[in-house]
Each structure stands twice: as C-alpha cells, then as structure tokens.
Q: What sequence folds into this?
C-alpha cells in the first residue's frame, strides 16, 4: 500500500462516526446515505462523502436503486477486513553517488544565522529568514548531531567547495547517515543557504 | 620596513573613558554640591575601579595589574581621608598628607607609565587581530557567522589549561574553561569592562578560538571585529590564519618559549591606549 492510500484509510477511520457507520454496514445488508444519516444523526452530505470514499478505496460496492422516479445508491460491504500494510522504507531517499559528489559551500550573504552548540564542535540550529517587509518570516531548523557536525565543516562562502561525501568524512559522519545529511542539504539549498558549484 | 597595519586606526575612547570621566564627575559634583562630597564620590569611584581591576587580576593572574589595584585603593584612602579633614586652612598632619600624596602620585604614575608603555596592563586583542591578518593578502569578504574548524592539536587538557592561563596572564585572550573545551576570547582595550562584567552578552557571539577535549580547534570571528579591518579580507583565510596563530602560540608555550609569542605582539608597537 502506498502512503497516500494509507493516509486516506487513516483519515476515514479517525472520524468520530466511523465505527458507527461500519456497525451499520456490517449488520445491514445494504444501506443508503440517507438511512445512515438518519440513523446516526449526521448530515446527509457527511454520510455520503464517507460512503463514497470507502467505495473509492474498494471497501464498499454501490448499487443504483430506482424508487419512484428518483435513483439513489445503496452501499454494501465488499470485504470484512481492512488491512493497512505500509512499508515505511518506500519514503527513504537512498543517497546516490551523484548526490554525494555534488560540491557545495555556504552561499555568501545568505542571511542565515548559525547557532553554535555550547561545548561542542557542532551547529545546534540554523535560522533562516524569508520574504520581505511585513511578510518576512523566521524559520528555525533544529539540527541533529550529525547534521550539526556536517554544517560545522561546510566550506565558507568564497572557499573551495567540497563534495557532500568529503564534508562527511571531515566531520567524521558515518556513511549510513547520508540520508539525513542529504535531507539537510536539500532544505538549505531550497532556502538559498548553500550553493552548488558548477 | 614599516609594518602595514591591516586594522583601521583605533579611534574608540573605550579604554580611556573611565579615567577621563572620573575628573569630570568630580568637577561637576564639586560645582553642584561641595568639595567634600565630590571627594567622597571620587573615593567611591576609585574603590569601584580598584575592585574591578582586582577582579581582573584574579581572573587573569596578571600581577602587573596589582599596580592599578594599589593605586586605586591608595587614592580611595587619600580622597576619603581628605574629605573628612578638608577645611580652608591648616590642619594637623596636612604636611604629611601632602608628602604622602605626592610620593604616591609620582610612584604610581611612574609604574603605570612604565607598564603601560611596555603593554603589560593592556588587553592585546589588536595585536592578535593584526598578527592573524599579517599573512592574509587575498580579499573577497565571504563573512559568515559560522565557526570554522581549523585543525587539530595533540595536547592534553592539562597542557591546554596551562596555555589558557598563559593567554590570560599576558592578556592575549580571556579564557572560558568548561569540562569539554577551552575557549579563548581576545579582547581589545575598552571592551574589557563590558566583557568582564558580562554586559556584552554571550561570549560565543564574540571572536574566539576554541580547543575541545579531542584537540579540535575552531575559530569564530565576530562581524564587528571583521569590520575593523581596512579591507574585506578573505574570511576563510583569515579564520585559518587566526586559528594557526593560536596553535603557534600554543606550540611555543608548550616548548617553554611562550614569551616569544609576547615578543611578536610587542614588535607591532601598538599605541598606548589601543
């Protein structure tokens, strides 16, 4: 299951009325949105959205019913179990040789403020300002210890740029931590704190 | 060949502000109130001045400062004594007082001028900044608030502490010692009052050289100090040079030749009040 689908399940299951609607679906052969709304004292749109979402996920099936001249849908359970199986490793950004070999250095006049940790050769946090005038916003990024050590060894503006891998070596950061370092590099690049050499 | 100064001329009056302000305050109080009150205020000011220098002496271990402490307490006593006896006429012991005052003024004056000219009473921040910039010819700015790692030294914490005491004693830098590191903060004349009294904020925002327990050396140069240079020197090179200077001083100190570091600073012949 991908993250987005799991999030949809989680959002539906976290509703206050989710258990009550499932109780109706399990105990009735089929229900309509208006029946659910009337039974649970919900707005009909709320009930309908919930049932439609479950149908979209394949948990329910719907059948169009014609009563007098107005057609409507009746919903029935297609499965009696919901299994959310999410492999978290799918969001892991594997560092590539290419991403580790990009030469970088701090950008001159980036306007970021680095707070050095007391009693340690590491940067504790970076504060970045974005926007102009009244829209100016401050964002403080707290760093993990390896990220702080990485930033401590990042070449200065105008200094010879070094590759991410070289900086990690200088800062004695284990290769297994490359993913969190690259995440920081990506973030600082986005805010214009570092520059990639051509 | 004359040495080319990299720092702008020192036009701050920070170093002289306290000695200059004392007679002004004395004169104002004497005009507004009366001499006896002005003398008492002068005595209190001298006592505070003496206490500050006593604290500096204890913090640095520089016994040359004892001259300033003794001078301050001598004048504290004399001003207070005079305020109690002051009358428009003769009083018993006036002659002895005048002789003691003259001897004290001349003795302390000579000692202060002698130690002052030999820069034994001044903080040597300007010399440190000049020496650090001596080998930096490139310009190009590149200032950043970040500290820069400049290398590693193979000295024990005990040796590093010894060097910190040496740096304090010769007023090269004010040490801040913790269990994990030793940070040396070079002070320029005039900054010492505010720095030692803790009015300049966290020392981590100042210019410093840090030696950690693993021997890692890093440098931070405050923007205020960087802007004191005439030209926007290449910041990366400046930090490297700054760290190397302290590593050289540490090497000299470990060989028992620390006085050569002081000689290098003396050769710069920085003016009396800088």
A:
């Amino acid at each position: 299951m991908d993250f987005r689908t799991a999030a949809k399940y989680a959002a539906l299951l976290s509703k206050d009325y989710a258990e009550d609607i499932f109780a109706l679906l399990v105990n009735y052969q089929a229900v309509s949105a208006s029946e659910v709304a009337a039974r649970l004292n919900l707005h009909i749109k709320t009930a309908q959205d919930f049932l439609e979402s479950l149908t979209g996920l394949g948990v329910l099936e719907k059948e169009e019913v014609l009563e007098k001249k107005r057609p409507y849908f009746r919903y029935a359970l297609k499965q009696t179990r919901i299994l959310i199986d999410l492999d978290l490793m799918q969001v892991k950004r594997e560092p590539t040789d290419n991403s580790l070999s990009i030469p970088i250095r701090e950008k001159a006049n980036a306007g970021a403020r680095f707070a050095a940790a007391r009693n340690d050769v590491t940067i504790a946090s970076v504060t970045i300002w974005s926007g102009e005038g009244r829209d100016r916003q401050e964002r403080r990024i707290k760093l993990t210890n390896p990220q702080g050590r990485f930033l401590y060894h990042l070449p200065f503006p105008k200094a010879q740029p070094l590759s991410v891998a070289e900086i990690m070596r200088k800062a004695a950061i284990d290769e297994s931590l490359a993913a969190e370092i690259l995440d920081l590099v990506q973030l600082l690049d986005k805010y214009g704190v570092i520059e990639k050499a051509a | 060949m004359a040495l080319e100064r990299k720092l702008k001329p020192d036009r701050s009056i920070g170093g002289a502000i306290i000695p200059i302000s004392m007679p002004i305050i004395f004169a104002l109080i004497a005009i507004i109130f009366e001499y006896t009150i002005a003398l008492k205020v002068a005595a209190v000011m001298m006592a505070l001045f003496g206490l500050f220098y006593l604290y500096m002496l204890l913090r640095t271990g520089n016994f040359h400062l004892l001259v300033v402490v003794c001078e301050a307490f001598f004048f504290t006593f004399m001003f207070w004594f005079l305020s109690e006896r002051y009358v428009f006429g003769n009083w018993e012991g006036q002659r002895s007082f005048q002789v003691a005052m003259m001897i004290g003024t001349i003795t302390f004056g000579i000692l202060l001028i002698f130690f002052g000219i030999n820069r034994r009473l001044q903080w040597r921040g300007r010399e440190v900044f000049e020496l650090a910039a001596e080998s930096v010819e490139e310009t190009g700015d590149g200032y950043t608030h970040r500290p820069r790692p400049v290398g590693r030294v193979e000295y024990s914490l005990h040796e590093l502490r010894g060097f910190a005491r040496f740096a304090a004693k010769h007023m090269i830098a004010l040490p801040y010692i913790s269990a994990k590191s030793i940070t040396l903060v070079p002070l320029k004349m005039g900054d010492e009052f505010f720095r030692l009294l803790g009015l300049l904020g966290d020392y981590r925002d100042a210019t410093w050289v840090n030696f950690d327990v693993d021997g890692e050396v890093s440098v931070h140069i405050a923007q205020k100090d960087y802007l004191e240079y005439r030209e926007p020197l290449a910041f990366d090179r400046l930090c490297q040079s700054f760290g190397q200077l302290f590593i050289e001083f540490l090497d000299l100190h470990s060989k028992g030749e620390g006085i050569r570091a002081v000689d290098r600073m003396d050769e710069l012949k920085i003016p009396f009040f800088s």
